[in-house]
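dumping this here so i dont lose it
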């Protein structure tokens, strides 16, 4: 009986801890948006902040060369992304795709014809 109780207790703790450490979906979308904007704007994601507003990930940064503030938003869906300045129109004509694999995110900017890879730790 004691072994059964300990086994149930251990399994319960494992389930609770696994849930506590599950990735935050908002953080995932912000990190994807940072990678997309980093690729499109040729800036490092390290200078970017982000938040979810109205269900949409927004990222922002101060450009190092002149300190000016730049703000963007992203629509993320099934391995593709559409971006816009915030405020601004959605850049539906740009083809942006991404893949998350082995702790990295690779973003392909079809308009510029380039791929960039970043560490992915939401």
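and the seq i came up w/
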């Amino acid at each position: 009986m004691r072994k059964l109780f300990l086994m149930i207790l251990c399994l319960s703790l494992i389930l609770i801890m696994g849930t506590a450490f599950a990735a935050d979906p908002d953080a995932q979308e912000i990190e994807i948006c940072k990678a997309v904007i980093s690729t499109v704007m040729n800036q490092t994601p390290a200078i970017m902040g982000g938040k979810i507003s109205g269900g949409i990930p927004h990222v922002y940064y101060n450009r190092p060369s002149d300190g000016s503030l730049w703000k963007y938003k992203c629509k993320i869906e099934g391995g593709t992304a559409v971006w816009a300045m915030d405020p601004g129109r959605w850049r539906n004509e740009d083809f942006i795709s991404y893949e998350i694999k082995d702790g990295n995110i690779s973003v392909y900017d079809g308009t510029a014809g380039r791929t960039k890879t970043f560490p992915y730790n939401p």
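The mean pLDDT is 86.
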